[in-house]
Amino acid sequence: MPRSVNAVASRARRKKVLKQAKGFFGRRKNVWTVAKNAVEKAMSYAYRGRKEKKRNFRSLWITRINAGAREHGMSYSQFMGALKKNNIELNRKVLADLAMNHPEAFKAVVDQVK
């Protein structure tokens, strides 16, 4: 009896990986063994990047809040401490948006915690 190999599934798997490698440079886009490694590496970078993006945005928000707070004579740490003490539960994303796009509203928050 001849050996049974599931060529359909194997080809589908390879096609899927080669489709993910579309746009890569040189042999990384069309040679199976090279593309497989390149796609695996790219996936790990993408996973790591999604975590990094959260860190980067948080640091950006903190910088913007700090700049806004210093305009009103407070440092970032003093401002955040005063927010906690007054039970104002605005997250950093919202505070940064207020500091950047709505300075009068941010000033109202600062005046409330002073």
Automatic annotation (TrEMBL):
Organism placement in taxonomy: Bacteria, Pseudomonadati, Bacteroidota, Flavobacteriia, Flavobacteriales
The protein's role, per its UniProt record: Binds directly to 23S ribosomal RNA and is necessary for the in vitro assembly process of the 50S ribosomal subunit. It is not involved in the protein synthesizing functions of that subunit.
- The protein here is known as Large ribosomal subunit protein bL20
Keywords, alphabetical: Ribonucleoprotein, Ribosomal protein, RNA-binding, rRNA-binding
- The signal peptide annotation in the UniProt record is none
Membrane in keyword set: no
PANTHER family, per the entry: 39S RIBOSOMAL PROTEIN L20
Cellular-component GO terms for this entry:
ribosome
- Family assignment from sequence similarity: Belongs to the bacterial ribosomal protein bL20 family.
Primary gene name? rplT
InterPro entries (UniProt xref): Ribosomal_bL20, RIBOSOMAL_L20_CS, Ribosomal_protein_bL20_C
